[in-house]
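ok trying this again, last paste got cut off
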Amino acid sequence: METVPAIVIGAGVVGLACARALARRGIPPLILEQHGAFGQETSARNSEVIHCGIYYPPGSLKAQLCVQGRELLYDFCASHGIGHRRCGKLIVATDREGERRLEQLHAQGLANGVTDLERLSGPEAQALEPALHCTAALLCPSTGIVDSHGLMLALLGEGEAGGATLVCHSPVLGGDWDGKRLALQVGEEGSEGATMALAGELVINAAGLQATQVARAWRGFPGPLPAPHYAKGNYYSLSGRPPFSHLIYPLPEPGGLGVHLTLDLGGQARFGPDVEWLPGADPGHLDYGVAPERAQSFYGEVRKYWPGLAEGALQPAYSGVRPKIAAPGAWADFQLQGPAHHGVPGLVNLFGIESPGLTASLALGEAVCQTLGV
């Protein structure tokens, strides 16, 4: 059995950020990816938004790593020529109850260290965005958008410059923990049904949608492991140019941030995601199709803040699935389970890395290395 300095399981944005962080410390990792290329699941199927850090309970990992990761990400994008724009976001209220919730969100953001927030009246918000309907809004100037593929390509390139190696078509099928070493069973590319045994002095499980399943397949692993829950989010694109220059968000809802308007770097708009829970789903066989008829529920939600949305203007775009570790109606923080949690030296499991995982990716890479003591 071959032993390598480090193994990262999963080549999404978080796995690539972890690999880069290790490589920068002189620890060249092997990145094992089950698909034929990096970033084929959650990292490629999201809003591509750089969040400011307002949505998460003070003191949570999501709050801390989002705020830290946001500035690391802006700096990384600027220094590596990655497409991005700090366009700002308006979170809007359309009634008195919404205004009360907006005040709570404002206070939470300030507690998280998001200091550039600005409360706006309805007319003040409409002065920024004349097509907008709201009674009050919260302006978040540090929110932005990013080219997620360009980001992952740059992370991989910097990791490879430090000795990291990406090996695709290499799913982790199982493993054995004998009390001393975690040995992984890895599917071999081009060999039908064949596997190889591989051990890493350090192992990072950043398998995203399948992180729990990967850890469950390790015989002798002490656990405990969180139960996975999957929430599909559907997106619809807008035909024609949008009348907005900021991202527009309603107040968050259970399981997501509401049907919001995001812009890509070309100025095109998309709406979503909604929340479609997938009980009993197999993360290896997910249906990413977007049903045209689901758009009907979007019109009513969007028209609460954009009454001018024309009938028939929404077209199916794409969908993504959130790797949650909390059931519908519940909230869960990121979980970074290191040796202090499970007793396996050199291993970190990352569970529930949904939004703001993209924003927090660089900070997550640093946090994982700190957990491993490297």
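PB: full thing came through this time. The two ends are 24 Å apart (CA to CA).
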